[in-house]
Amino acid sequence: MAKARAIRPNPAVAVPKTAMVMAAGLGKRMRPLTATRPKPLVEVAGKPLIDHVFDRLRAAGVERAVVNVHYLADVLEAHLAHRVKGIEVVVSDERAQLLETGGGLAHARDLLGDAPILCVNSDNLWIDGPVDAIVQLAQMWDADRMDALLLVVPLAQAHGHPGRGDFHLDAEGRIVRRRAPGRLAPFVYTGVQILNPAIIRDYPDGPFSTNLFWNRAIAAGRAYGVTHEGLWFDVGSPASIGMTEALLADG
Questions:
Q1: What confidence tier does 2 reach under pLDDT thresholds 50, 70, 90?
Q2: Of 195, 117, 179, 190, whose CA–CA distance to 152 is shortest?
Q3: 86-140, pLDDT tens digit by residue?
Q4: What is the rounded distance in angstroms from the CA atom of residue 198 to the CA atom of residue 201?
Q5: Of 197, 174, 196, residue with least CA distance to 187
Q6: Phi first, then psi: what are they for 217, rounded to 5°?
Q7: Cβ atoms within 10 A of the Cβ of 132, count?
Q8: H-type helices in 97-210, by residue range?
Q9: Span of the secretion signal (predicted)?
Q10: Do 205 and 215 meet the contact criterion of CB atoms below 8 Å apart?
Q11: For residue range 130-178, what is the model confidence (pLDDT) as tens digits?
């Protein structure tokens, strides 16, 4: 049997032009700050979380963002209309029902096109390492071998993250299994990924998790991870904001 090839950067691969920005969540862990504003508009280091994300998208060369909305949707749409510049924004409206991450992708499927898509959680905050993280992810993308390519960070470097890790990767970067109950896993998903939109199929009606698509890709040997070389912060609660800002202030 042929030996699996490690993923290697391909500078000729372009960053996806379209991104899906997941912004519809209720932000329960961030209460009371989310009582009057959606979580993506909570400020960290003087700027709403979603603005940090759009800064990264623009810097990487993304041209178009599909943003799903549900909780306090009017507030978020007004912010997108008046504050986001330099990138086309298309709203995927989930006011009628919160559809979770997988359901959000399915609901927006017709807006995403057929080329590989970048998918980013709107409450992410990361600092690039030697290479722009989105560019790094794009250069590692191999459509012949992948349906999902996740940006991951070592558990020990997941600042503010309360979990025990998400995935195990082999030497070639393939995601081989999830964390077992009661155990640790060495890598945490950062909320940034590239997906083959063809994987968004055969899904149930209503809300469901992206785990449905990931599980298929893992079972088929077509889910991979790339390790983030910079800083990443899980800004999930009010208490985590001060810790994140302190670490950012330290440089």
A1: very low
A2: 190
A3: 999 999 999 999 999 999 999 999 999 999 999 999 888 999 999 999 999 999 9
A4: 7
A5: 174
A6: -65, -40
A7: 17
A8: 100-107, 109-112, 133-140
A9: none
A10: no
A11: 999 999 999 999 999 999 999 999 998 888 888 888 899 999 999 999 9
- Per-residue exposure over 81-103, b if at least 16 CB sit within 10 Å of its own CB, e if not: eeebeeeeeebbebeeebbbbbb
The superfamily in CATH containing domain 18-250 is: Spore Coat Polysaccharide Biosynthesis Protein SpsA; Chain A (3.90.550.10)
**Cβ pair 121, 49 in contact under 8 A:** no
| CA angle, 160 then 162 then 168, to 5° | 105
Q: In 3-state terms, what secondary structure has residue 48?
A: strand
CA 115 to CA 106: how far, in whole Å? Answer: 15
Instruction: Look up the pTM and report it.
Output: 0.92
Two structure tokens written together for 227: 């390790």
Residue 81 has, within 13 A of its CA and on its CB side, a CA count of 7
The residue ranges of every structural domain in the chain are 18-250
